[in-house]
């Protein structure tokens, strides 16, 4: 029987899920940036993955969610940052570069700037991340939205005068956590391989629990070349559950997207039965 392919971003924020995850003969872990994982799942190149929450929202009728797993934050997340040279209130009509790696974070940025702050910049969807942009291209931009490990590294570099943490700004306005990613499985696969996925889900729960009991150890062994104390603090700001409060927060965000015409309908939360 061919192995199921399930995708995860190779970011520091997935370390608590993957570090202690045992090898499973029936499941292959595929790593890539979030936007590419979204596309691979839509094209059935992988059968499931930790994908952008907005991608689930757009295609919820095609997927089942693994229960109680997310990448989320209450307040500062530290890895979804708008870096900018001007104060937020001066970004009207200014050019903001958008990393090619994101989907949910770009949607969140639009809600925060346009709906809450009443600011409409010019968004520039880039094909390269910041370090690969030419000096002229960088000078052309008043800001840049970065996610994941790139955001952590740029924050340490301090090359922008202002850094706005999008999850913190969302909490200030919406008074709710923010859910960046969820593990979705193609519905027909979830129904066919239910027992395999149940075991995988339980393994994820166990790996997550062990990781948060040994955060300092996994940070020491992590692939990212950032200050270990910084990485540890970062992981303590992240949460990996999908509690009823997180579900409410996600659906609240989806309501904003629906009213803005960015979603055809507000999604339903369809879970794999354990």
Helices and strands, with pairings:
Elements (H helix, E strand, L loop, with lengths): L3 E5 L6 H4 L8 E5 L2 H9 L5 E5 H6 L4 E11 L6 E5 L10 E4 L5 H13 L5 E4 L9 H6 L2 E5 H10 L4 E4 H9 L3 E9 H6 L1 H20 L1 H6 L7 H10 E2 L4 H16 L15
Parallel strand pairs: 1-2, 1-3, 6-7, 6-8
Antiparallel strand pairs: 3-10, 4-10, 4-11, 5-8, 5-9
Explain what this protein looks like in three dimensions:
The chain has helices at residues 15-18, 34-42, 53-58, 104-116, 135-140, 148-157, 166-174, 187-192, 194-213, 215-220, 228-237, 244-259, and strands at residues 4-8, 27-31, 48-52, 63-73, 80-84, 95-98, 122-125, 143-147, 162-165, 178-186, 238-239. Helix 4 (104-116) links the parallel strand 6 (95-98) and strand 7 (122-125). The longest helix is centred in the last third of the chain and has 20 residues, at 194-213. The protein is of the alpha/beta class. It has a 6-stranded mixed β-sheet. Strands 7-6-8-5-9 form a 5-stranded mixed β-sheet. The protein starts with a strand and ends in a 15-residue tail after the last helix. It folds into 2 domains: 4-72 and 178-259, Periplasmic binding protein-like II (D-Maltodextrin-Binding Protein, domain 2, 3-Layer(aba) Sandwich); 80-174, Periplasmic binding protein-like II (D-Maltodextrin-Binding Protein, domain 2, 3-Layer(aba) Sandwich).
